[in-house]
């Protein structure tokens, strides 16, 4: 497939497109990367250098792809951290151009807003833009638990509440929802759940909790889930494959004691995960 991925880029390490593009390429897909920023490293280090690109550049680059008449061959658009509502507008414009050229294309939005324990960490106005504009335009979304709560206006402490929150968000537009880093009352303390909800059912995968916190893992799992769903149109299969690969990637990273996810060194996990997790139908 051909995937247009519009996200940030770092010279060192793996977040944004530097985390999302290679897993998709390793699985055999062409990825057309449009970068929203070019930084030396991710902002989690506390210091970085580089530049945030204007929304006009995104429109210009997508316009160049349109000039080459390749948008009819684009199978999907993936977006992550947007940075600003203006960038979000440019991304939605790109989605509109791609879907006008190929009615079978899909849009996967990773609605980066915040996280449990940290709260909202994007600039003012962006959460509302994502909830009111980006999510309704998306076919698939990949929120974490904090973002699911924000998008649905609910609190999810139980599995039933998480499923109900998905129903609320489905009603706004997205057909498929992957909830990452889900911890409900019935999740064991040494585990973490991932839940996916789609037209073909709701499914959960439970993996051991790894004692690491690294940037970029969410970007990788969103990309993996998107291309696996596009390839199979099976919510369960996409969840199983994405969760298994992400777990393998993070397990290798934890074993190495690395501050950065080992996207390249652990690349075999994208193709043949060392441990396959079977989805549980809910």
From TrEMBL:
Keywords: ATP-binding, Kinase, Nucleotide-binding, Transferase. GO terms for molecular function: pyridoxal kinase activity. InterPro entries: PM/HMP-P_kinase-1, PyrdxlKinase, Ribokinase-like. It comes from the Bacteria. This is pyridoxal kinase. Gene3D superfamilies: 3.40.1190.20. Residues 83-257 form the Pyridoxamine kinase/Phosphomethylpyrimidine kinase domain. The gene is pdxY. The keyword Nucleotidyltransferase does not apply. The keyword Isomerase does not apply. Its EC number is 2.7.1.35. Pfam families: Phos_pyr_kin.
């Amino acid at each position: 497939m051909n995937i247009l991925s519009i996200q940030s880029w770092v010279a060192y390490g793996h977040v944004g497109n530097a985390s999302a593009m290679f897993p998709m390429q390793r699985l055999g897909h062409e990825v057309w990367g449009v970068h929203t920023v070019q930084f030396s490293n991710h902002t989690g280090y506390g210091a970085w250098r580089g530049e945030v690109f204007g929304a006009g550049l995104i429109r210009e680059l997508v316009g160049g792809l349109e000039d080459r008449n390749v948008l009819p061959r684009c199978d999907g658009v993936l977006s992550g951290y947007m940075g600003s509502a203006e960038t979000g507008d440019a991304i939605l414009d790109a989605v509109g151009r791609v879907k006008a050229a190929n009615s079978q294309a899909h849009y996967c939005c990773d609605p980066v807003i915040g996280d449990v324990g940290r709260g909202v960490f994007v600039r003012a106005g962006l959460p509302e833009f994502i909830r009111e504009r980006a999510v309704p335009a998306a076919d698939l979304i990949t929120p974490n638990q904090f973002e699911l709560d924000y998008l649905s206006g609910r609190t999810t402490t139980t599995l039933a509440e998480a499923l109900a929150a998905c129903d609320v968000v489905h009603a706004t537009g997205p057909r498929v929802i992957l909830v990452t880093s889900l911890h409900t009352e019935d999740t064991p303390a040494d585990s973490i759940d991932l839940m996916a909800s789609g037209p073909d059912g709701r499914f959960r995968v439970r993996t051991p909790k790894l004692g690491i916190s690294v940037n970029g893992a969410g970007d990788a799992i969103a990309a993996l889930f998107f291309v696996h769903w596009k390839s199979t149109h099976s919510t369960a299969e996409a969840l199983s494959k994405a969760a298994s690969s992400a777990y393998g990637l993070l397990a290798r990273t934890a074993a190495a004691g690395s501050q950065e996810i080992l996207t390249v060194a652990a690349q075999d996990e994208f193709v043949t995960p060392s441990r396959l997790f079977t989805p549980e139908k809910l």
